[in-house]
Amino acid sequence: MSSRNANACLLLLVFMLLAAVPAQSQSFRVQCPKSTITHPAASNNSEPAYIGPTTLTLGSKGYLVPTLPTANANVNGAIKCQQISGGDGYATMGDGTQTYIFSFGPLSGLANIAAGMPGTTFPADFNVPYPGTGSHNYLLPGDPATTDNASSGSFTWNGAVGLIGDPDLTFPTPGGIPATATATVAGGIINDAIVTNPGSGYFGPATVTFDPPSPCIVNCQTALGNVVINSSGQVTDIKIDVPGQGYTAAPHVTISLPLTGCTGNSTAAACVTGHVDPRPIMDVGVMNGNIPAPLMALDEDDEFFLTLTNVGMIMRPDLFEQHTVHFHGYPNASAFYDGVPDASVAINIGGSFTYYYLAPDAGTYFWHCHITPPEHLQMGMVGQIYVRPRQNRVPAGSSLYTALNAQQGDLRTACNSVADILCSNPLPLVNTGASGGSKYAYNDGDGSTAYDVEYPLQIHGFDPNFHFVGMTFNPEGFTDMKDKYFLLNGRSYPDTVTPGPLQTESADGKNHFSQPLPSIIDIPAGKKALLRISDLDVTEYQTLVSLGIRMQVVGYNAKLLRDQSGNNMYYKTNSITLGGGESLDVILDASDTTKYPSGSVFYLYTSNLDHLSNDAENFGGLMTEVHIN
Fold this sequence. Notes:
This protein is mainly β.
């Protein structure tokens, strides 16, 4: 017995020693490239006007690449990035009840999300380390709630949390010196390239250009190469990728100039390459769950890089929960990024994974975790994403019908309604002569889905008993799950009409923006509002009623309501019903200022009376207000 006690004490001592060792296994990282094969230019920080499909040409390495903008060519879309955490947190209901949630939280776009906007940003905004100074020189738990009032605009930073310069990639001078090399030729091919001056200031891939064979005799091919760079920012070697052929003399070699964009002082610089400091990620990510999860918004043709960082669930340290991101109903670039762990990957605690998407057809989609979906969806791991149409980028005065017809030249989205009965976006039956310059829900070609302001509304419900046992280590009764709170953007009435982010004090003693997305609908007098409505409820169907302003439904499950002959199948109604996993695009038309004068108030609510409650209390639940301003 004494020997067993001694062994137990020894094991306890070993565990204590292991606990005292700093964790070295975390693999947090974040990716947001400034350029890609699909978007090779450096100008990926704005959406270009849509003048026609992206044109492609055969690149030097044998695959198709876009031609850069010229008079007869175009590259559409841009690069967008976002970082989110997978963890837990708390949220507050309209009756004051606090509930425990598993959810995703923002790790980029903090200012935008705290102001109720999408956290998706261009690389120029994303790849910016936190610039805090003075008493706020480091992100703190609960930021931005505990540091600045984001809703007042004093917190404006939208970069990736934890992003810092990579200490292994530094160089002695900010500008750098171009490297030089000479090539050697044998048997008509380039067999080597010798570095004659290593240069300085290189911190990323640099291209090597060999002049083509001249004069070309027969079967000539230009050689290609890449450089090897050391930690001091110098070129140490050149690797010949394609030796070329047909060379009768050594060609001139050009090594691209040192890349720029590093931060630092005049003697050294550290480069942003996706390297992160895990401390601020944990400080901000822990207990930072949002309901709904961070909002995402893309434009057609964008490349989207979404990094999920699993920070763990501090309130349930016994759960080694993996997390994933699954875009519901969204055509992925590859099943590898679908988020269903059977065919994809799952992200462990302490790890990061960057999903890649090429933005598909416009519409309202949503996303959620696909690990134990009934549990994680019920606990709050649900969010919304929408894709804006190319038609938004058609220049003012240009024909929408012509622009939609031009999209038939894009192989990714072309649809011939005569040959393809699944064509999702046929040309309208009649050319209305509508021109661009507005905002639209879809590529309609006739301007019929135009709107002025948009509001994402995500319906969700939860069972407080299920959440309670989820926090207290008790078995969860899936078969007994019954929603008693009904939410619009994570809020139950009257919180749905409270502007700005809602804060909740969590177990760490800090306030967190638990419900940043407002649910109140403000329509400028004489304008139209687009409601992007989605339902990710687990146990209930949900109905919404609009009295006073009829709803015109223009899209269902991210598809324009149009038949194959080009007839618009829109319909007007006072009520809509959605099941879990469905979405609708609805336009509220308040353009008649006689019927809808400024100062008018209408209600958007559920006709299921038992859903107009916060648990046992009346006058809550699934309801919000529509204000004409």
